[in-house]
Amino acid sequence: MIESDALNLRSSEKRSKTPFTILVVEDNPTDIELMLHTLEQADIKPLGGDFEMEVRANAEGALQLLGERSVDLVLTDLMLPGMSGLDLVSRIQALDPNLPVLVVTRVNAVAQAVDAIRRGAFDYVLKPVNPEDLGVRLHRAIRISEILRRHAIYEHHDRQEYEAHSLVGVSPAFEGIVRGIRTAAQTRSTVLITGETGTGKGLIARAIHQQSHEQQQPFQVIDCTTVPEGMMESELFGHVRGAFTGAVSDKRGLIELANGGTVFFDEIGELPLPLQAKLLRVLEENEVRPLGGTRVRRVDMRFIAATNRNLEARVREGLFRKDLYYRLAVVQIIIPPLRERPEDIRALARHLLGKLSRELGRARCHFDEDALNVLAAYDWPGNGRELRNVIERAILLATADTIAAQDLHALLPKLAGDFTNSADGAMTSLPYMEAKERAIEQFTKAYLQAKLSQHAGVITKAAESSGIPRQHFSLLMKRFLGSDLPGEE
Question: What pLDDT is attached to residue 2?
Answer without folding.
Answer: 32
